[in-house]
Design a protein that fits this description.
Blueprint (H helix, E strand, L loop, with lengths): L1 H26 L3 E9 L8 E12 L2 E10 L3 E12 L2 E7 L6 E8 L2 E12 L2 E11 L3 E9 L6 E11 L1
Antiparallel strand pairs: 1-2, 1-10, 2-3, 3-4, 4-5, 5-6, 6-7, 7-8, 8-9, 9-10
Length: 166
């Protein structure tokens, strides 16, 4: 009986610790962010310089990002993401410039959450890409989306946005 209780205690501690670690990581991303980067409308197109701002809120195992990116003088697009950590696993949704709720699933390794994207509509000939949300130091964050160019088969960074906390 005591053995079972000890085994149960040992098995539940890491899960609780992992959840606490994820909550602390998500809390470290909370704040107002601003920065610049580049976006490709298609994998084979030239990059467009953008400036972006995001308001990020965390609540326990959840993170909410609401933002706007501007490029090409007057073009402005809203972007949002909602993530929830369940232990080491992340799930959520992303709404990009084309609209539609795309699914996100992944895990965190160090300061980066690596997410598989399932686009709501076909992008670059399919519905799949990779998105990486990386904390850079205490006051930096980088958002990168990687897709496959259907013509060459090569992986291409279709967006890379470097943000600083305001």
């Amino acid at each position: 009986m005591i053995r079972r209780l000890l085994l149960a205690a040992i098995l539940t501690v890491p899960a609780g610790t992992a959840q606490a670690d994820e909550q602390a990581f998500l809390a470290s991303l909370e704040g107002d962010w601003t920065g610049r980067g580049s976006v490709r409308l298609r994998a084979d197109s030239a990059p467009i310089n953008v400036s972006c701002s995001f308001d990020t809120k965390s609540a326990g195992p959840a993170l909410s990002m609401r933002g706007r990116c501007r490029g090409l003088i007057l073009v402005s697009r809203s972007i949002s993401a909602d993530l929830r950590a369940d232990g080491a696993n992340y799930r959520g949704t992303y709404v990009g410039p084309k609209g539609g709720h795309s699914k996100l699933t992944g895990t965190r390794r160090g300061n980066a959450v690596n997410l598989a994207v399932r686009w709501a509509v076909a992008v670059n000939g399919d519905h799949h890409a990779t998105m990486i949300l990386r904390r850079v130091g205490e006051n930096g964050m980088q958002l990168t989306t990687i897709d496959v160019d259907p013509a060459s088969g090569k992986r291409v960074a279709t967006s890379e946005i470097n943000l600083r906390r305001r």
